[in-house]
Amino acid sequence: MDGHKNYNKGTDIIMVLDEFINTLYAEKGYSKHTCRAYYCDIKDFLKFFLPEKNIDFITNDMLSKFTKKEIKIIIRKYMAKIQQSGLSKNSSSRKLSALRSFFRYLVKIGQIDLNPADYIPYPKIEMKIPNFLSIDDLFRLLDSIKSDSLLEKRNLAIFETFYSTGTRVSEIIGLNIQDIDFKKQVVKVLGKGAKQRIVPIGKRALKALMQYRKMLKKEYKALFLNKNFTRLSARSIQRILLKIVCECGLNVPVSPHTLRHSFATHMLDSGADLRGIQEMLGHTSLSTTQIYTHVTIDKLMQVYDKAHPRS
Asked: Alpha-carbon distance 212 to 229, whole Å?
């Protein structure tokens, strides 16, 4: 069974679910947040599947009494109920992903023969155009950050690094000083699923990082530190950014992810290759990166409508 437990027919399904979640985390590299969401999603489905049973006493042989067709019908009813409840299509899609993965695991360990969740279509998700700042607004934001005190130098280094690398906030807070190669001008980033990638970093960001680190009286492992000299949190970065945005007078919503979107949009507008942007952002699929082409096309259409005499 590929190292997995060979469960008896009367094994509690929660034990199987725990093993499945452990596999996602330890072997597949899923984040704790995703594992927790999958766990809740599958428990929610099991309650719907066998409503008369206490979930802690549902056993795997209770599932095996149903045919693949019967389980498939129940999954369809479950997905219909979710969509009628007003849950977002993204959340509905994640719940179906959780079920597909769980049933795939049950097939793998020999509990069922075929995956009943295969071929059940995902809800159609409308592609949202990401918020981003214009180059002028982004420069205004970065240029407004003072760099007199240690914390001000740190703040400038954080947001210069954000815009220079297009990294996620979770990746920024996870950076260590040894991840920055000042000579080669690259950063080693640990992304989703514990996947590592090398990202270029610009001279302005490197200069801001050097000036910040020079003010520290000793070396620390973490790159960005709070006032207690421990690793900065994502919530703290969000709070710092909000304060800077208010102080510089930008009347637009800005989050750390806005800086990531701005990085990708500005790179694409300047002629960068979509594949290269995909690698820098750490997207596993090019389709995820292609959303930025919609931003560029929208911008192009606006220019066309304003400029063309017969538009």
From this structure: 13
